[in-house]
Amino acid sequence: MLLVLPKGRLLKEIKNLLEEVGVSFEDSSRKLVMDTSVKNIKVAILRSWDIPKFVNKGIADIGFVGKDVLNEIEDEENFYEFLDLGFGKCHLSLAALNKVNHSNKPIVATKYPLSAKSFFSSKMQNVEIIKLKGAIEIAPILGLSDYIVDLVQTGATLKENGLTELEVIQNISTRLIINKSSFKTQNSQINKLVISIKKILDEKFKN
């Protein structure tokens, strides 16, 4: 069974969670696929945006990934979104400079075009969406966009750059996803792992 984990700030929390259910591994080497303390479980560490692709294709059985990434999937989902892990919390928000020019067709810069499109469609508002991959906050500062749609954790970055959070679009957290075929063929092993993870999470949330 292959588990795929995201690089970056969430890796430590997920690694600690897995250790609590008896699945430990050493991630200090340059190996791309690592053995764990459980004989038939391996882990790979990937970019968050790639995790759903590997699970969708059945190359990985289980993935840990943010809801923000899942919202942007355009392919048919060949996986179950099984658990909200309750960490990596932030929110997807609409923000702008304190002095925003209200044009007939505002320009919105974002890493999350599908989420932004859905949000503005729900408001019956016609906008132009520009997809960016870098620091989104710079778009309105340099005049590329009127608004941004981006993840916000504390709001400090927005404030430092003269932007105001106008509306929370969606609360975001880390999710556990399972390939549909794997769930059928490896049901016993997957259920055992998921139930153990859920038990740990329930205890944490209770406290």
Provide an overview of this structure.
The protein is an alpha/beta fold and 207 residues long. The protein has 2 domains: 2-88 and 173-206, D-Maltodextrin-Binding Protein, domain 2 (3-Layer(aba) Sandwich), CATH 3.40.190; 90-171, Periplasmic binding protein-like II (D-Maltodextrin-Binding Protein, domain 2, 3-Layer(aba) Sandwich). It is 32% helix and 30% strand. The protein is built from 8 helices and 11 strands. It has helices spanning 9-20, 51-56, 67-70, 113-122, 138-141, 156-160, 180-185, 187-206, and strands at 2-6, 33-35, 42-46, 62-66, 79-84, 90-97, 107-110, 128-131, 147-152, 163-172, 174-179. Strands 2-3-1-4-11-5 form a 6-stranded mixed beta sheet. A 5-stranded mixed beta sheet has the order 8-7-9-6-10. A hairpin with a 6-residue loop joins β2 (33-35) and β3. The chain is elongated and about 60 Å long.
Task: Give a concise summary.
The chain is an alpha/beta fold.
* Helix/sheet category: alpha/beta
CATH H-level superfamily title of the largest domain? Periplasmic binding protein-like II
Distance between the termini: 31 Å
Q: Helicity, in percent?
A: 25-40%
Which class of the largest domain in CATH terms?
Alpha Beta
Number of strands: 11
